[in-house]
Amino acid sequence: MQGFAEGIQNALSYIETHLTDELDIAEIAAQAFVSPFYFQRMFSILTGMTVGEYIRCRRLSAAGEELIRSGARVIDIAVKYGYESQDSFSRAFTRFHGIAPSAAKEAGVPLKAFAPLRLKLTLEGGSVMEYKIVEKAAFTVVGIAADVPAEQSYELIPALWTKHLQSEAAKSVQGMFGICLDNSEHTLEYLIADIYFPQREIPAGCITRTIPAGTWAVFPCRGPLVETIQRVEKQIWSDWLPNCREYRLAENMTVEAYIEPPHENPQDDYNEIWIPVQKV
């Protein structure tokens, strides 16, 4: 995708420049030329932390440096870095640095530093990533839906699956798909879903969603489900997308398609990740 590396660096620079301002995820994502939905997903996958966690760590690191350097009052530093009260700032500061803000003013006290991220592209051994571009007609799914905070999606979505598979609803919705849909800047709608057949009654507690017709990049995932999905997803954002020149991201959604039931040998499992794209 053209401008991918430049966009990510733009977003990181924007965060750093506006560290003491009220940061808006839509404006941050705009610097990277993608939607908030995609930016939050790619950021978490590439860095192992959420955008909010990164901003909090940078602010607390910078606040520690400023307490040592400036001699400003703790309350002034708290307000500057977005905390509504000195107490909330003190709790966060103590969790991060291991000491209270007042103690940070003492000479020789060690503080933790959290350096800003820098995008670094390196040439390593070439790797082959299998994918195909396919046109799919619109299709409708039926399933269990939940609104999930984008910042906590990687923690909460596995819990949704565990709860579903242990519930009575699993008899009606087997879970052919795990679908992330854009809901707002701060939440996404996650569906555990099957193909919907109009002649069948919609199970209690379920909804339907129509996935529009379009072009999809389809990535095979061969091997143990969780491990392989995570590995391929990271490759999509770190390898495939930065080097893709013909397509860019389209609809704000991603699909995990569980093509085959689990095999006796997990190495034989086959699933797919679908990413909607369009020609540049």
Provide tags for this entry:
nine-stranded antiparallel beta sheet; Arc Repressor Mutant, subunit A; 280 residues; 2 domains; single chain; alpha+beta; Multidrug-efflux Transporter 1 Regulator Bmrr, Chain A
State the gist of this model.
With 280 residues, the chain is α+β, with helices and mostly antiparallel strands. It has helices at 4-17, 25-31, 36-47, 51-70, 74-80, 86-97, 153-165, 225-243, and strands at 132-136, 139-149, 177-182, 187-195, 207-211, 214-222, 247-249, 253-257, 270-279.
CATH hierarchy, class of the largest domain: Alpha Beta
Largest sheet: 9 strands, antiparallel
- Give the rounded overall mean pLDDT: 88
Rg from alpha-carbon coordinates: 22 Å
Strand content: 15-25%
What ranges have pLDDT less than 50 throughout 5 or more consecutive residues? none
Q: How many DSSP-defined strands?
A: 9
Task: Give the name of the CATH architecture of the largest domain.
Answer: Alpha-Beta Barrel
Fraction of residues in helices? Answer: 25-40%
Element order: H for helix, E for strand: HHHHHHEEHEEEEHEEE
Tally of DSSP helical segments: 8
SSE blueprint:
Elements: H1 4-17, H2 25-31, H3 36-47, H4 51-70, H5 74-80, H6 86-97, E1 132-136, E2 139-149, H7 153-165, E3 177-182, E4 187-195, E5 207-211, E6 214-222, H8 225-243, E7 247-249, E8 253-257, E9 270-279
Antiparallel strand pairs: 1-6, 2-4, 2-5, 3-4, 3-8, 6-9, 7-9, 8-9
Helix pairs in contact: 1-2, 2-3, 4-6, 5-6
